[in-house]
Amino acid sequence: MNSWDTVFLARHGQTQWNLQRRKQGRLDSALTHDGVAQARRHASALQGRGIDGIFVSPLGRAIATAGIINDALGLEIDVVDELAELDHGQFSGMTDEQVDTQFPGERQRRAADKYQWRFPGGESYADADTRAAQALHRIRHRPAQRPLIVSHEMIGRMLQRHLLDLAPQAALARAHPHDVVFQIDPATRECRSIGLPPAPLPDGTSGEVR
Fold first, then answer.
1. What gap in Å lies between CA 122 and CA 155, rounded to an integer?
2. Helix, strand, or coil here: 38?
């Protein structure tokens, strides 16, 4: 079994359904212009960091993001099915307003026990916790010592739970914006955010304040 030096966690770029605040789960939505730009900024930030393997969710938005990143890294991309986002079941494609109309009170029940609550016809965080452990087990048996994992925010919380040895509630409190890459040292359980290059302004110049 391989011993990791560093693990990098990236979330897919922003999608059309993210903008519409629709629940994606196992359904998919195309990256927005900003989502593509975020992936390109990931690529720029991750060059020169010794990444030696890319492992990605099978969902299109994650594969598209990993492909853009890999344009700069030139590695093989390994699809790991267990990295797929939580299955949102009957909530897939819905907004919160639609959920409240069709499943009254269900979001309140979810808030009362977010870890064990299961999407109707889908998964719970507890289910995803098991999958996250399986995904990391598979990746650990690959030769990469500094892997990049490209997945999703919800399954990503469970990946962080295992990599950082967090209690479920602590993992559920973590956020992973589209424009952030986490760099994790599995030995010390330290996690830091990698600063991405500033987004360009409409005239093509850097948005960085100097």
1. 14
2. helix
- Single-letter amino acid code for the residue at 53: G
- Per-residue pLDDT tens over the stretch 61-108: 999 999 999 999 999 999 999 999 999 999 999 999 999 999 999 999
Residue-range domains of the chain with CATH: 7-194 (3.40.50.1240)
Q: Please list the alpha-helical segments (H only) found in the chain.
A: 16-20, 33-46, 60-73, 96-102, 106-112, 125-140, 153-164, 168-172
Q: What is the DSSP string of 65-96?
A: HHHHHHHHH---EEE-GGGSPP--GGGTT--H
CA 177, CA 10: separation in Å to the nearest integer?
A: 9
- Give the orientation angle of helix 153-164 with respect to helix 125-140, to 10 degrees: 60
Taking alpha carbons only, the member of 107, 93, 122 closest to residue 15 is: 93
12 included as an active-site residue = yes
Of the residues 42, 85, 88, 152, only one is catalytic, namely 85
Q: In this structure, are residues 58 and 111 in contact, taking their beta carbons and an 8 Å threshold? A: no
Q: What is the pTM of this model?
A: 0.91
